[in-house]
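Input/output pair, single chain:
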Amino acid sequence: DISIQYHAWNLTPEYWNHPIELPNDKNVEITLSENGPIFKSIQIRRKLGENPVIQKLTLFKDHPLLYMDFITDWNQKNIMLKVKYSPNLVAENVIADGMYCAISSKMNPETPCDKARFEKFCHKYFDLSTLDKNWGLTLINEGMYAFDIRDGDMNLTMLRACRYPEAAPEAWVNKERELNEKYFSHKVPEYSGLGPFSCRYALFPHEGGALQYPDGSTNIMVNNKSEEFNN
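Output:
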């Protein structure tokens, strides 16, 4: 994930054609970390390259959500980390939650402007539902706002370890950075996204489409579950 200009904002064009192979089979540990009558959790410890990763999956009794935690201490620069899920359904559109709205976009964009939106945004969830709005799968997130849909896969962007953004010469933050270094020895980092990182998210299989049931009536289940998760 190396961008020559505006590296903190721009993504490498067609980044999906530049995967980085990270050995992830070294010392994988899978344990049943919680095993009670209310919920059960599986914990997976592994290394992606030299980055330690913990993934925790939790199921509650009589509750449809699969809760997940992603915890790492990331130290690899110029890389974008995504987590991928491959649902077994055929969808035409992806529905993503925005500010006081829900945005629908095509799974397979046709126009140039739609193709340019290869990285999309969501606030609390994005959803793939069957063409007949019979059922769907929602990825609910807390604080991770970028995703992409590629070849039917749901990909949540976890972190970007890109170069830290420089400030414009006239920006007031230059003075602030100068004072922070002078009085507190705080230096501007060379890269963002490095160090301890954690994210909570969940998969929610549901009846109906993201917004409607097959008969056209309103489905509030996806919105309610995502609100509950974020609050």
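The first strand starts at residue 29 and ends at 35. The chain is about 10% helix and 40% strand.
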